[in-house]
Amino acid sequence: AQTVTQSQPEMSVQEAETVTLSCTYDTSESDYYLFWYKQPPSRQMILVIRQEAYKQQNATENRFSVNFQKAAKSFSLKISDSQLGDAAMYFCAYRSWQGGSEKLVFGKGTKLTVNP
Amino acid sequence: DVKVTQSSRYLVKRTGEKVFLECVQDMDHENMFWYRQDPGLGLRLIYFSYDVKMKEKGDIPEGYSVSREKKERFSLILESASTNQTSMYLCASRISGELFFGEGSRLTVL
């Protein structure tokens, strides 16, 4: 079964600095999607960035970028110029196809604190 | 903007009560999901639905059931609530691979 591992339960960063959140996954499939979701305190979870496994180019969304290493099954999220509003739980997720049906497998999350 | 609305943000129920958690989305999405979120465990899939009247078990369906009579509404039912079902419940709908989440329903079972 596919698994997603976020090895950092908590991380902190100074405002305006850069932080990288780690994610590794285990799969035997060659075609899949990877996601980072953000859950601010008491607010709904939103998609930050996605990566298609067949694309070699790393996805970027403004200050958010990923380092996708397919062979190593690694999918880290880099947040540049961190802002107070980036404080949240971040979940890495893997989208799989099993028996003709789809679902997402989530990691356990990393709590990011941004210090002013 | 996509809007996924969960009927109750906070609920307190007693052991043995029947609990309904309602979720409505306004974007005509076919796929809908119920997740349970617990500290240190991340999100775990309870049930999902690809279309009206269709449902499939997720990773932790025991003690739960679902109903999808209309496309926009996906309900999670706890037939007889137990204390170990105290948790945050997240509903989501999906289009083009992206999940859109509701704000969550925090259920406490006493």
Task: Give structural notes.
The complex is a heterodimer of chains A (116) and B (110). With 116 residues, chain A is mainly β. Chain A is built from no helices and 12 strands. In chain A, strands 2, 5, 6, 10, 11 and 12 form a 6-stranded mixed β-sheet that branches. Chain A has a 4-stranded antiparallel β-sheet with strand order 3-9-8-7, with no helix packed on it. In chain A, strands 1-4 form a two-stranded antiparallel ribbon. The model of chain A has no long low-confidence stretch (mean pLDDT 92). Chain B is an all-beta fold. Chain B contains no helices and 12 strands. Chain B has strands at residues 4-6, 10-13, 19-21, 23-25, 31-38, 42-49, 56-57, 65-70, 73-78, 87-95, 98-101, 105-109. In chain B, the strands form 3 sheets. In chain B, strands 2, 5, 6, 7, 10, 11 and 12 form a 7-stranded mixed β-sheet that branches. In chain B, strands 3-9-8 form a 3-stranded antiparallel β-sheet, with no helix packed on it. A two-stranded antiparallel sheet of chain B has the order 1-4. Chain B is globular. Classes of the chains: A mainly beta (116), B mainly beta (110). Chains A and B meet through strand 5, strand 6 and strand 11 of A and strand 6 and strand 11 of B.
